[in-house]
Write a structure and sequence with these properties.
The chain is an alpha/beta fold. The protein has a single domain, classed as Spore Coat Polysaccharide Biosynthesis Protein SpsA, Chain A (Alpha-Beta Complex). The protein has three helices and eleven strands, in the order E-E-E-E-H-E-H-E-E-E-H-E-E-E. The strands form two sheets. Strands 6-5-4-7-10-9-11-8 form an eight-stranded mixed beta sheet. Strands 1-2-3 form a three-stranded antiparallel beta sheet, with no helix packed on it. Helix 1 runs parallel beside helix 2 (64-70).
């Protein structure tokens, strides 16, 4: 089996080619929503890089579910008493991108994820993203958070994975206040 070297993300990535078919990672984005119709469209539009979008709906009383479906997302009704982290079992792929309904992938982050998908993610359990939060005085640095992770390597209860030290992808996750 031949190996193909692809440059990017500050290091060369190795893609295994088996019978002419590249084995590349796929991403499921998970969003937890409760009456988030006002924010959800902007978030979903930035997730075209993801292979699946899963919206966990907590009995929204607006058009959240309809908007999610219009963008091709799978909508699952939240079950009372089930930890949010347990919903990764419903994802179609092992690599999970967790975000809030008010968060958007910057264009640079979208491009970085496209490039990341073209290679082997290596042994890392996850990847961190720089978060920028919209505040009263403009955009503020929100630090880095691990938001892309392999569900076969990490288990957690909350909506967002634990902030474990991990390699950072270029680009920003933009957290809008409205």
């Amino acid at each position: 089996m031949p190996d193909i070297l692809i440059g990017g993300l500050r290091a060369l990535m190795l893609v295994k080619v088996v019978s002419g078919i590249e084995i590349v990672p796929k991403i499921t984005a998970i969003i937890f929503a409760n009456s988030e119709a006002a924010h959800l469209t902007r978030s979903l539009e930035s997730l075209r890089v993801c292979d699946q979008v899963l919206v966990i709906d907590y009995k929204s009383d607006d058009q959240t579910a309809e908007i999610a479906r219009a963008y091709g997302a799978t909508v699952k009704d939240a079950i009372p008493g089930v930890d949010e982290g347990a919903y990764v079992i419903d994802a179609g792929y092992d690599w999970i991108l967790c975000l809030l309904p008010s968060e958007v992938l910057s264009e640079q982050l979208q491009a970085a994820l496209e490039e990341w998908k073209s290679g082997d993610p290596g042994p890392s359990a996850g990847f961190s993203l720089k978060v920028r939060r919209e505040g009263n005085k403009g955009w503020e640095n929100g630090g880095t958070e691990m938001r892309l992770f392999n569900r076969t390597k990490i288990n957690f209860k909350e909506a967002l994975p634990p902030n474990i030290k991990s390699p950072r992808l270029p680009g920003e996750l933009l957290h809008f206040k409205n």
